[in-house]
Design goal:
283 residues, alpha/beta, Rossmann fold, 2 domains, seven-stranded mixed β-sheet, two-stranded antiparallel ribbon, 13 helices
């Protein structure tokens, strides 16, 4: 097995060296559509073929994967995501913290929250959980995601199950026109800001705060050594080129108010470190 793994790594490295990126992108998309391959093999080969993109432009690397339903995006399927039994422990903890924060603000979330936006919604499975179990009186539940395949599958499933959720295929960097004059009681941005470099992440947080009526909920990657609130600048996580941000600073410098937060350092849940920030908009 070690020999086989070494051969595979060497093969991928050689392909990246001799085959132009434009060709490797096409090959990655082709491999991702081969259902006869296991999910791990599809993801491994597709991601590794273009891994050098992450070193040059991490934003574009992640955008390419998500927009083409490649790599980790490949696991976002109806049977694997919808239903209480498929909600990750980290998300259950997030929602528990969220309801705690709302309760401390003296907000009756089951009755008072009428609108929700999920930025990076994928299939809409988290919105469905919120619709059914948390914000049961919400009338407007919107989700946006760059993954057209996930949006199409999720929308079809939600419609067939009588959900009010509306999904839109959209890059989170191009939210301005979509948001227009809309305001949402809750805006959820879970596990998406990590794919934006610091300046673009700051712009996204600013945009979302401006359209938040009650609370903005953001999750990031916890810096394992020091609390993220102590970071002078964003860092890149070596394993996948995603970003470790100081979300506290981003919110505070925009005049937002952090009402609850969680930072768990090196502790891993669902394969990631935990860093949650719950903020109210400027008064």
């Amino acid at each position: 097995m070690p020999l086989r793994n070494n051969i595979a790594r060497s093969s991928k490295k050689l392909i990246r060296k001799v085959v132009p990126l434009v060709v490797r992108k096409s090959l990655a998309k082709f491999i991702s559509r081969q259902s006869w391959l296991s999910g791990d093999h599809r993801a491994g080969w597709s991601m590794e073929l273009v891994r050098d993109m992450a070193d040059k432009d991490a934003n574009e690397y992640h955008k390419f994967l998500w927009s083409n339903h490649i790599g980790y995006a490949d696991t976002y399927e109806i049977s694997q995501r919808f239903g209480e039994e498929n909600i990750n422990e980290s998300r259950k903890l997030l929602f528990s913290d969220m309801t705690t924060a709302l309760t401390e603000l003296k907000i009756n979330y089951k009755n008072e929250i009428k609108s929700v936006l999920d930025v990076g919604s994928s299939l809409g499975y988290l919105l469905k959980h919120l619709e059914d179990n948390v914000f049961v009186c919400a009338k407007k539940l919107d989700g946006i995601d760059i993954d057209a395949q996930a949006i199409e599958k999720g929308a079809s499933y939600l419609q067939a199950n009588g959900s009010k959720i509306q999904l839109t295929c959209l890059d989170m960097e191009n939210l301005t026109k979509f948001l227009s004059d809309k305001m949402y009681d809750i805006i959820l941005c879970a596990g998406t800001v990590i794919y934006l470099e610091e300046e673009k992440a700051e712009e996204l947080v600013k945009n979302l705060l401006q359209h938040t009526a009650t609370m903005l909920v953001i999750t990031g990657i916890a810096s394992p050594e020091n609390d993220n609130s102590e970071l002078d600048q964003s860092k890149v996580r070596a394993r996948d080129g995603s970003y470790i941000h100081n979300l506290d600073r981003m919110v505070n410098q925009l005049g937002g108010n952090i009402v609850f937060r969680r930072w768990q350092g090196k502790e891993m849940i669902d394969g990631n470190t935990l860093y949650f920030v719950f903020a109210t908009p400027p008064h």
